[in-house]
Amino acid sequence: MLCPFCEKGQTAPGFVTVHLPIMTSDLVVRHVPAEICDFCGEYYLSEEITEDILKAKSEAENRKVTIEVVEFEPAA
User: What is the pTM (predicted TM-score) of this model?
Assistant: First the structure.
């Protein structure tokens, strides 16, 4: 699909690393499936993937992590 951000590149499936700041801590989720623009590099997550990432963020907040790096795991 045409990238809605730059409107110049095409998106293709790939994997990204998502960094989520949590108040005074950080969560880094690696190997997240995404659509990535071949021109500007902007990435887009599906609604389901976004929900999984936000769930991981909430769980990290509950554990009061300082910094955590995890591999992406889709919800079952």
Answer: 0.87
